[in-house]
Amino acid sequence: MRARFGVPLGITAVGAACVAYAAGYEVRSFRLRRVEVPVLPRGMRPLRVLQVSDIHLVSGQNKKRRWLQSLAALRPDFVVNTGDNLSDPEAVPELLDALGPLMEFPGTYVFGSNDYYAPRLRNPGRYLVERFTGRHGANGNEPARNVPRNPWEDVRDGFDAAGWVGLSNTRGRLKLDDGTEIALTGLDDPHIKRDRYDEVAGGPEEDADLALAVVHAPYLRVLNAFTADRYPLILAGHTHGGQLCIPFYGALVTNCDLDTDRVKGLSTHHAGGHESYLHVSAGCGTNRFTPVRFACPPEATLLTLVPREA
User: Are the beta carbons of 124 and 61 closer than 8 angstroms?
Assistant: First the structure.
């Protein structure tokens, strides 16, 4: 009898321990990723860029809120927020409080689907099914219909009041304290087909010291367009780094058509005979209905931009 039931009970115990770890510890084990990217003109001073993404804030997540506030001690030159700030329509005041110290620095932002729409209960296994059936393909999903909306306008107004530059299918500029000018080009969320690249096409503005491309979801059609237009660096989020990963193997899904090898961190992308650096943030939150992470801690990234080699 022991032999018959021992193995299933052991597997059950290991599974329960993994769930307890993923939901009780790792999902709150916030990390800072540090990355160096050689994209600046020769002779330009290094720039420190803090990227925050996929916060998915729920009211009462005080540890996450305090951790976000603490990132201001890094003293970045500017901040890039790549979307999905909310997972609770009541959390806007806490979100603006969490990001308040960072909004003392120059910054820019794009929105993701979870800024616009309230979260829904969804079986995580569907992400695997959608990957293997090609549901995430090159086009993303249709905009949600007949679902509750998040008060995204309040988030936008808070960011705008702090001087952060919104980049929903538009261009913008950041001017740093030392006079450095950053030309920015951004898209609304491709995951729900709100991106309109034709409205921003044409490549970087040449009179700026640096040009950046910003988008929430790193769909290939967007990466191809930015890269073909010769943007040196693209910043994105959305993937959660896979969220539930296999140790020593990595992510199983990206929730878009990006390959799993580039689900988080720094990589390169090639299109139109050109190459861009791509940084995908694993983000620091989860949908409120799937509050677990495994082998993929929540994170923000401090990117140090340095001059290109000769």
Answer: no
